[in-house]
Amino acid sequence: MNLSRTLIPDLMVLQAFESAARHGNFTRAATELNLTQSAVSRQVKTLEQQLGVLLFERVRQRAVLSDAGRQLLPSVQRLLAQSEEMVLRARAGADGRTVLSIATLPTFGSRWLMPRLRDFLEGHPGVAVDVASRAQPFDLEAEDVDLAIHYGQPVWANAVCTYLCSEVILPVASPALLGASAVREPADLETRPLLHLATRPKLWAEWFQLNGLGGEQAYRGNRFDQFAMVIEATVRGMGFSLLPLYLIEDEIASDRLRIVFDRPMPTDNSYYVVLPESKRDDTLAQAFQAWLLSQVGTRLA
């Protein structure tokens, strides 16, 4: 027997602990898990004995986490989530398909990747994809993700970044707002309603400076923390925004948005395909990366 395996708690024991910690009550945890209150109590006690620490304290008939319990809870929740993900991925491949796990930036995924993804799947009929939205770097190995799409600098721990494309933004607006605003030159935008991406608050100031303007009014206006919300606000005529064309291909094609001035501005960062070190030679991950690189020719900027 591998003696180290004796240190691994039963998942049911971890579920009992997590549920009791979340509810602060063993009875509610028992209801959620379809167990008796005494069964939940026994499982928590089993975990306490295995770890050699007290996980809960009784305070006015509530189960309050001890310091050790509070420290343990995030790790247990992460392990349970990973276990659930493992089962779901296995079920997704139950028909013999190979599952490719992809992490992508939310708006990039919905606006650029989704309209093109069918092309990749048609070329790889034995593949199913598991696509998740992620805005920040994370541990690809720990979360068993095959590939990520990253915006920023080519830096990601324990992974290899491959350049995908640069980003160029342009001022856009709805036809109705553009028609009512009498905008004839860039300086006119300084007095018009501006929309901002909260994570990139200096875009308008930089665009005004690029076009020889002071940009004193560049920071006023409504702010949103996702490109998707900026796009929707722009379509609804709430203001002028600076957006990458690859995120608004449909809106431009359908005339729901129009380019105000064809004066593009490159941003400091770029998009990268990120492979964990363990996937550098993975055939499917490499195929998807090659497909992504082939797609940038369909005008990302």
Task: Chart the SSEs and their pairings.
Layout: H1 11-23, H2 26-33, H3 37-51, E1 56-59, E2 62-65, H4 67-92, E3 98-104, H5 106-123, E4 127-133, E5 147-152, E6 159-173, H6 175-181, E7 195-197, H7 203-210, E8 222-224, H8 227-235, E9 241-244, H9 249-253, E10 258-259, E11 265-276, H10 283-295
Parallel strand pairs: 3-4, 3-5, 7-8
Antiparallel strand pairs: 1-2, 5-11, 6-9, 6-10, 6-11
Would you write up a description of this structure?
This protein is α/β, with parallel strands linked by helices. Helix content is 41%, strand content 22%. It is built from ten helices and eleven strands. Strands 3, 4, 5, 6, 9, 10 and 11 form a seven-stranded mixed beta sheet that branches. A two-stranded antiparallel ribbon has the order 1-2. A two-stranded parallel ribbon has the order 7-8. The termini are far apart.
Oligomerization: single chain
Integer average pLDDT: 89
Number of helical segments with 4 or more residues: 10
- The secondary structure category is alpha/beta
Radius of gyration: 25 Å
Strand % is 15-25%
User: Which regions are unreliable across 5 or more consecutive residues at pLDDT < 50?
Assistant: none
Distance between the termini: 58 Å
**Gross morphology:** elongated
Question: Based on DSSP secondary structure assignment, what is the total number of beta strands?
Answer: 11
Order of helices and strands: HHHEEHEHEEEHEHEHEHEEH
* Largest beta-sheet details: 7 strands, mixed
